[in-house]
Amino acid sequence: MKKVFLMIAAVMMTAMSVKAQSDEPKNELSVSYGIGISLIGDGIGNALGNGVFDQLTGHKWEDSNGFGTLGVEYFHHLSNPRVAFGGIATYSQYGENVVKKDGGEKVGDRTRSYISLMPAVKYYWVNSRNFGLYSKAAVGAMMMFDKCNDTAAKKSSNDKDLYFMYQASLLGVEAGSNNVRAFVEGGFGEQGILLAGLRVRF
After folding, report:
1. Positive or negative CA dihedral for 33, 37, 38, 42?
2. Beta pairing partners, 38
3. What is the DSSP string of 75-89?
């Protein structure tokens, strides 16, 4: 009789464990805002390109401005709750004026817009009902749209280029309820060196 009770208890505990796992959210949808210069794009590449531009044209770039990177993410957790696969979409913009090197007179401006799509994987070092600690990696493609206006000559140009792009968030921290969490990540790539946002799990 004692063995029967033990077997029934074991079956009930197993069923409860399976139900608890099935109740855990499998999907994540996140919105983020990131700051910091990407190591590709407006980082090293632009620094070299601007130097060549200065020497060849006698002009220089000034008053650089950008508002950071907006990101949308979707991840799906596998049967192993620590591993999730998904994708990241980002949008960012960068602008600056073209001025004469000798007098500082403005002769044009440039605006660059960037759209990236990157498959991604995320690994949770800690994944509890109210707290998560994770790392994330993504690789994909970025489309750059470059618009330059020459105000002196009254003409403009529109170009676009495709680049390899990535994001490596070395450490991310999220906290909140089981379904809604705020998060912060530190790393490097198109989403930024530091990014923060809100995540919905369902």
Report:
1. positive
2. none
3. EEE-SSTTEEEEEEE
161-194: pLDDT as tens digits: 999 999 999 999 999 999 999 999 999 999 999 9
Give the Cα separation of 199 and 202 in Å (integer).
Answer: 10
Predicted confidence at residue 169, as pLDDT, reads 96
DSSP state of 58: S
Query: Are the C-beta atoms of 139 and 88 separated by less than 8 Å?
Result: no
CA proximity to 90, closest of 121, 116, 68, 119: 116
**Angle (CA) 71 91 97, round 5°:** 140
Cβ neighbours of residue 26 under 8 Å, at least 6 residues apart? 76, 77
Q: Is the dihedral of CA 170, 29, 39, 162 positive or negative?
A: positive
Cβ-in-10-Å burial (0-12, 13-18, 19+) of 185 comes to buried
* Whole-angstrom distance, CA of residue 202 vs CA of residue 129: 13
- Closest of 163, 174, 183 to residue 38, by C-alpha: 163
Q: Which of 148, 88, 149 is nearest to 117 (CA)?
A: 88
**Which tokens is 30 given?**
């996140």
| pLDDT tens sequence across 63-99 | 567 788 999 999 999 888 899 999 999 999 988 777 7
Range with lowest mean pLDDT among 70-79, 99-108, 144-153, 187-196: 99-108
